[in-house]
Amino acid sequence: MDRVTAATAGVRAVARIAARPDGRGGTALPTLEGDGPLAPRRTRAAGAEARVMLVGAMSGPLGGDHFTVEADVARDASLHVGSAAATIALPGQAKGGARYDVRLTVAAGAELRWLPEQLIAVRGSELAVTTRADLATGARLTLREEQVLGRWGEEPGRLTSRLTVRIDGRPLLDQEVSCGPGAPGGWDGPAGLAGHRALGQLLVVRPEFAEGPVEPRMLGEYASLTPLAGPGVLVTALAPDALKLRRTLDEAARVLG
């Protein structure tokens, strides 16, 4: 579907990734498909880990669009998913905001590293992002989210982001943030972003964290590491720009090993 024919309704696009052990110590990708602007591509593997890059085949999401990405990692498989470039939320001709849903499933003994590039909410855009990860006991997950409000020198769009993580159906994390024009009051104040325009988090779930929780600590002035009530650690960070945010989250990853 092109942008002309989809202008009144917005684009609907789904990408699906399934990772399974290949029987030779590596990971196979029996399902790797996408339509419209979502184009998953396999890249060079690293050891037992399969690697996939999400490539944007069209601009978006624009107003009225609804994108969905699904990744399922079976037992003993290992998958790394990144993106070729930042995702840019733009205003569109269709009525209403855009949606971007991410659905992740990781089995016991499997590992998923979900490390896309930044999401940029430009002026006039309205985007709701929902990320849901369903893990089995013994699954391993590294998930990074980076959100930038507006391009350089630009007012932000409206961005709402919700992250939900469950282990065997029990909640490990459920949080939502809303920023930009029309968001609840105080989002940019001292108790919110305090004038920063880049926000991000790094979630790491490992079975060993249930036995030996990580100590909470600050990682600089605007970043914190917090153990969750379960086998997980959450790093949250604010920064004036995307580069400094990435450096903070990379340092957090090194701290966590």
What does this protein look like?
The chain has helices spanning 208-211, 242-255, and strands at 12-21, 27-34, 38-46, 49-56, 66-73, 78-83, 87-89, 98-106, 111-115, 119-121, 126-135, 140-149, 158-167, 170-179, 198-205, 217-218, 223-227, 232-239. It starts with 11 loop residues before the first strand and ends with a helix. A hairpin with a 4-residue loop joins strand 16 and strand 17. Helix content is 7%, strand content 51%. The protein has one domain. The chain is built from 2 helices and 18 strands. The longest helix has 14 residues, at 242-255. It is globular, with a radius of gyration of 18 Å. Strands 3, 4, 6, 7, 9, 10, 12, 15, 16, 17 and 18 form an 11-stranded mixed β-sheet that branches. The protein is mainly β. Keywords: Chaperone, Cytoplasm, Nickel insertion.
Q: How would you sum up this structure in a few lines?
A:
By secondary structure, the protein is mainly β.
Query: How helix-rich are the residues, as a percent range?
Result: under 10%
Radius of gyration: 18 Å
Please mark out the parts with pLDDT under 50 across 5 or more consecutive residues, or reply none: 1-7
Structural shape: globular
Order of helices and strands: EEEEEEEEEEEEEEEHEEEH
Q: What's the number of structural domains?
A: 1
Percent in strands: over 45%
Architecture blueprint of SSEs:
Layout: E1 12-21, E2 27-34, E3 38-46, E4 49-56, E5 66-73, E6 78-83, E7 87-89, E8 98-106, E9 111-115, E10 119-121, E11 126-135, E12 140-149, E13 158-167, E14 170-179, E15 198-205, H1 208-211, E16 217-218, E17 223-227, E18 232-239, H2 242-255
Parallel strand pairs: 1-5, 4-6, 5-8, 6-9, 7-10, 8-11, 9-12, 10-12, 11-13
Antiparallel strand pairs: 1-2, 3-4, 12-15, 13-14, 15-18, 16-17, 17-18
Function: Required for maturation of urease via the functional incorporation of the urease nickel metallocenter.
Protein name: Urease accessory protein UreD
GO molecular function, one term: nickel cation binding
